[in-house]
Design brief:
This protein is an all-alpha fold and 102 residues long. It is built from one helix and no strands. It is rod-shaped and about 145 Å long. It starts with a helix and ends with a helix.
Amino acid sequence: MASEAVNRILSAEADVEQKNAEARQRSEELVTEAKGRASRTIQKKLGDAAVEAGKMRAEYEKKLEEYSKKAENACDTELGRIKNASERNMKATVDRIIAEFF
């Protein structure tokens, strides 16, 4: 009877060890799967962020191009105005110098 109890205890311990080993293995599998899912999720988020950054970059480049064109047009207009004023002033100055000497 005692040996039967010892055998049951040993069998129960073996079962517990077996179940613990299975639980550890399943736990490791779950952790590995979770790491894989997290890694894929991170890669997807990085990819999405890269796409969004590309869209934003293209939008800002377009706005910069529009702003540059507007600024260039404004500069050309101002340069034309300054050139016209300069030509008028030059002509008036030449006329005045000629008038003083002749």
